[in-house]
Amino acid sequence: MRKILLFIIIITTGLLFIARVFYLQIMDTSFVGRSENNAVKVVYDYPQRGFIYDRNGELLVSNQPSYDVMVIPRNVKPFDTTEFCSILNITPENLAKRLDKAKIFSPRLPSVVVPQLTKSEYAYLQEKMRKYEGFYIQKRSLRDYHTENGSNVLGFISEVNQRKVNEDPYYLSGDLIGLQGIEGYYEELLRGVKGVKYIQKDRFNKDIGPYKDGIFDTLPKKGKDLTITIDAELQKYGELLMENKRGGIVAIEPATGEILALITAPSYDPARLVGRQRSKNYTELYYDSIAKPLYDRGLLAEYPPGSPFKTINALIGLQEGVVDTDDRFHCNHGYFYGRGRRLGCHAHASPLDMVPGIAQSCNAYFANVYRRIIEKYPTPQEGMEAWSNHLKSFGLGDYLGSDLSTGRPGKVPTAEYYNKIYNYPTYKWYSTATISNAIGQGEILTTPIQLANMTAIIANKGWYYTPHILKEVEGKPIKEKQYTEKNYTTIEPEHFGPVIEGMHQVYKSGTASALRIPDIEIGGKTGTAENFTRINGKRMQLTDHSIFVAFAPVENPKIALAVFVENGYWGGRYAGRIAGLMIEKYLKGEITRTDMEDWILTHSLEDEYAKPLSGEPFKINQ
Amino acid sequence: MSKSISNFDWISIALYLLLVAIGWVNIYSASLSDVSTSFFDTSQVYGKQLVWIILSIFLIILLLSIEAKFYERFASVFYVVSLISIIGLFFFGKTINGATSWYQIGGFTLQPAEFAKVATALALAKYVSDIQTDIRNLNGQFKAFIIIILPALIILPQPDAGSALVYSAFFFPLYREGLSGVYLVVGLSSIVVFVLTLLFGPLWISVGVIVLALLAYFLQKKKKPGMIAYIGIIITAIALSFSVDYIFENIFEQRHRDRFNIVLGKEVDSRGIGYNTNQSEIAIGSGSWFGKGWTEGTQTKGNFVPEQHTDYIFSTVGEEWGFVGSSVVLILFTFLMLRILYLAERQKSQFNRVYGYSVAGILFIHFFVNIGMVIGVLPTVGIPLPFFSYGGSSLWAFTILLFIFIKLDSERMSFW
Fold first, then answer.
1. Taking CB atoms and an 8 Å cutoff, what residues of chain B touch A1?
2. B281 and B151 within one domain
3. Alpha carbon of residue A21 to chain centroid
4. A568, A26, A562: which is closest to A248 by C-alpha?
5. Do B141 and B206 sit in the same domain of this protein?
6. What is the mean pLDDT of residues A470-479?
7. Lowest mean pLDDT among A310-314, A327-331, A491-495, B234-238
8. Does A27 touch chain B (CB under 8 A)?
9. pLDDT higher than threshold 70 for residue B291
């Protein structure tokens, strides 16, 4: 025992130590990452973000350098604070506060003292910089806007939020990310790929050279330049027309599905979300819960489509073979359907067949067509299914699948839906219960872009490309199948002729005859949508929304659009005028109907919007 | 001399050379700065160490040239000189890192405590091997303890608890020569009670001790020892437990408490006092199977582990050479210690054997405490890893310690 005690202790210790080292080095793998966090600093090299051009090659968005004044607190030597503050336009107390904050963050690491200097501030400060030890200027890249329009289309850049940082390892806290619009949807194309440099640090977090001589380092890849389908001129003109109004305009090139203009009103200058005032401005826009400038009405606003929807019912009637273009229906200031219930209509000649039916927007005509569609089938459920399936083939009732970062599905009612609300089979329901669908007022909801797409489908006689906003990447046309393959509707092409003729007649002899544009043949359809709000819990009707859809020229359509003006009253009043002006602007490049332009530019709906907020009784539809 | 060359234990010498070489390679990596210069740059830590190593070779030749009996004959002189030199520190010492353990001689510093171990080992060997000494009786034990405890007590307040702790190594030769096993049992039991008290508190330990004693008493069938002995042990254990608690809470300084608490897992503090151990574990743990390669260790390069070229040099081995490298180093140390023990056992002279056991014991305590600290199983106690850690005094002292024994061993057959 005396001879072997130390032997045993030494051998045991040796084995235990080897076991412990085995545990540390092999079993427990957590140390590897911890040593890397510890000793290797990763520095990113941010690439230039891609530029954005409009369809005609006009530069809309580029980058501008921005200069942040940085400080490493421990390196600061006494300096002339008065001069420094006067250059930076801040008070000495403010500077002291910022420096304290930086010191608390870290005495050794850089912090921003004054962010985003203007070029002139920078130029002046640069001359003096050598006098301020411990301070330096860091260049960053910000967006530079060459347009005041289309902020909803372009989107904006913002610091990435924590949730995104957790989800996507590409982003680090403090990185910039595109949000909404093009910047949001095509973030990955625009941002490029940042370069990485690994730097070996010591325990004071000081750099002591590249890690492993830089073999893991990568170079940044520049972001891609994008050409979008927007026509900047048209967009600008649309926004001008929509001033002092609320609503949206969506214009599509029917032959390609390219979105020519996407206007929401009110809007804001995209440059407001750049620079030192960014967060203040964003907060202001964000909290404007009345005008909602950040709410893209062209994409998000769901309303009953109103009369433009009648064209679809006509098409479905023809396709289902329940109505012929020659079939006439009587209208006695409306359509009566049992027990004195009436779907009212305005004064016009009667009876009418299809083309004048559309031109005059006769409610009775479409009530008849709708009932024939539903009643063609043995049960109203089957009829409703057939009807809604046709609608869905027009891209209604679901997300369009466009490359816009937001959207709404709208709503197409189905048999199931009505079964539920009428508590079928306890209670039965018939076509008359859903008669409002005939004139686009019932349960159906659409967004302006869906309406514009529907109009493009009519212009194309039965097919559409999914509306999209991206035209070219680095000068090469997009190839995504989603936007380059035709979607066909369930309606045969031959049925579109009479409907197009009807829409043409809307301009020639119908509800938009006062809005004709010289030398341009337009097919259009007015619409009016009733709408309600809640004031102190009470449901109140507001002035109707003014709706208009149109495409032109009727032969070989170049543009199809939907215009939507909140509380603009009847379709021809605001929306119709705006639609005509947009078409003329796009096709001719100039305006000959200056009377219409003047009217729009001088009329404001602000009074109308103030009504429900005034707290006083008001009248509508005046 | 020529005759004795073949008698030198070349295995030990080879292990020594290997450890010193591996040690320097790691010191080089741990102390490498951006401005790389030649290996011999004496302004750099690795350059200085290289000088110490080369001087060690001359020292070895000198040590092996001296007649073996010289060491035994002058053991007392060395011991007295050592005591004077460590007492002199109180008057002429230079303070580095809070410990007054160095003499400044020109550009170099010398740590006499390192050499005092050698002198104590020689003195103890001489005393125990004296024909009149019987380590089995209390008088012999008392004198031997005085020899051991005197330098330890002088070193302790410098303060250098680590170096003082090393003197516990002399238990091993004494036990080998016949010291009662009671000391071992009492010593180990005290350590167990100490650690358990820190973990569970004195109350639970008291309950545990009583339950254990009762179990032992009733389960023992043959010749029951007196109740008195049992009660005595129980009371002693409980008293120890409470006094440990009292000493720990009231006499220890917070930093001592922290060191224990971190190892016992009662506290996690990776920024403050636990920083060294934590960073050292990260360095070793990130080494994986084969390590990051020589001078490629990120922890090492970033100087995350404090004192890495001295006390924490083993963490560089772990990081840059991985499990394979660490195991090799641990095995080399184990082999060297076992080899010395084997040599000690084959000595005919008691002086040689006691000295050999002292060498093995001292190496073991350094190895155990240093590596145990670096891999996070023992509290932080600053003592160097033999042959590895940077420092001339340490390297020379261990070289002298080892090569005196190799010289003694080479002449074990001669009669004098």
1. 181
2. yes
3. 58
4. A562
5. no
6. 89
7. B234-238
8. no
9. yes
For residue B284, list chain A residues with Cβ-Cβ distance below 8 A: 21, 24-25, 31
- Return the structure tokens found at A295: 């709410």
Task: Please check whether residues B288 and B166 belong to one and the same domain.
Answer: yes
Residues B97 and B145 in one domain: yes
- Considering the domain architecture, whether residues B27 and B89 belong to the same structural domain is answered as yes
Range of B197's domain? Answer: 180-251
d(CA A266, CA A261): 15
Chain B contact for A19, CB < 8 A? no
A214/B contact by beta carbon, under 8 A? no
Mutant choice from B184, B268, B279, B282 vs A, greatest count of A C-beta within 10 A: B282
Asked if B298's CB is within 8 angstroms of A38's CB, the reply is yes
Which of residues A117, A140, A163 is at a domain's end?
A: A140
Domain membership flag for residue A358: yes
Residue B2 has pLDDT above 50, yes or no: no
* Rounded distance between C-alpha atoms, residue A604 and residue A587, angstroms: 26
A38/A139: higher pLDDT: A139
Over 80: is that where the pLDDT of A232 sits?
yes
Range of the domain at A400: 232-273+299-614
Please check whether residues B234 and B363 belong to one and the same domain.
no
Q: Which residue has the tokens 């790389």?
A: B36
CB within 8 A of A37, min separation 6: which ones? none
Three-state DSSP state, A92: helix
- Mutation target among B179, B284, B286 for the A interface, most CBs of A within 10 A: B286
Regarding whether A237 and A92 lie in a shared domain, the answer is no
Q: Residue A514, exposed/middle/buried by CB under 10 A (0-12, 13-18, 19+)?
A: exposed
Q: Give a yes or no: residue A200 inside a domain.
A: no
Residue of A13, A26, A202 lying closest to B302 (CB–CB): A202
Asked which of A82, A117, A140 is the last residue of a domain, the reply is A140
Give the whole-angstrom CA distance, residue A550 versus residue B375.
79
pTM attached to this predicted model: 0.59
pLDDT of A361 above 90: no
What interface predicted TM-score (ipTM) does this complex get?
0.84
Are B298 and A22 inside 8 Å of each other by CB? no
Average pLDDT, chain A: 84
Above 50 in pLDDT, residue B1? no
Q: A18 at the B interface (CB within 8 A)?
A: yes
Interface contact A209-B34, CB threshold 8 A: yes
Q: For A17-33, how does the pLDDT look when each residue is reduced to its tens digit (9 = 90+)?
A: 888 888 887 777 666 66
